[in-house]
Design goal:
Layout lengths: L1 H29 L15 H11 L2 H19 L1 H25 L5 H24 L8 H40 L1
Helix pairs in contact: 1-2, 1-3, 2-3, 2-6, 3-4, 4-5, 5-6
């Protein structure tokens, strides 16, 4: 019975995180592009949740959230947008996992966020090149890399700011579990 409650809590927590991802994704899509940003540059706020899942819940949870986010985008914005989201999300997660493995505890969340944002943009540009069957889109990649660094700094800083909130939620769940024992 205890194991079922623990699994249920994890599913509920992941569902809450998926809800946050979908809300942040919708808000970003609904907001008009900021005048100083080039086309298709977004903050990537939903990636904060995915990064948190990767760092504190594990690779499986992070990949699940990235895939479900892409499914949500397919349902709301179409197959092309979903494919771009999936490509960027998977590239970003793979990059962060690789860097985390190579540098272990010697790399900051900020650096991982920046590298993840660059990988996300690169994955999306590669996917867009596949869709359009041209490499001309890669000329836009330096612009996307530059803004990946900028937006990666923003999301990395926000991740650091919200980590205590998520930590509090997880500690509350842990203390409830200990109270039952």
């Amino acid at each position: 019975m205890y194991h079922i409650q623990t699994a249920t809590k994890k599913i509920a927590f992941l569902a809450m995180m998926l809800a946050m991802i979908t809300v942040l994704s919708m808000l970003e899509h609904m907001l008009l592009p900021l005048p100083f940003l080039p086309p298709n540059v977004r903050l990537g706020l939903s990636n904060i949740i995915t990064m948190y899942a990767l760092f504190f819940l594990g690779k499986g949870s992070a990949f699940l959230l990235a895939v479900l986010k892409s499914v949500f985008i397919i349902l709301t914005r179409g197959l092309t947008a979903g494919f771009l989201s999936f490509s960027g999300g998977i590239f970003a997660l793979l990059c962060i996992i690789l860097l985390s493995a190579v540098f272990r505890h010697h790399i900051s969340y900020l650096a991982l966020s920046v590298c993840g944002a660059i990988a996300h943009n690169t994955g999306q540009m590669l996917a867009a090149s596949i869709i359009t069957n041209t490499n001309l889109l890669m000329f836009y990649l330096p612009v996307m890399i530059f803004f990946g660094v900028v937006m990666g700094c923003v999301t990395g800083t926000l991740l650091k700011a919200v980590m205590p909130m998520f930590g509090h939620i997880l500690k509350s769940a842990k203390s409830e579990k200990e109270d039952r024992l």
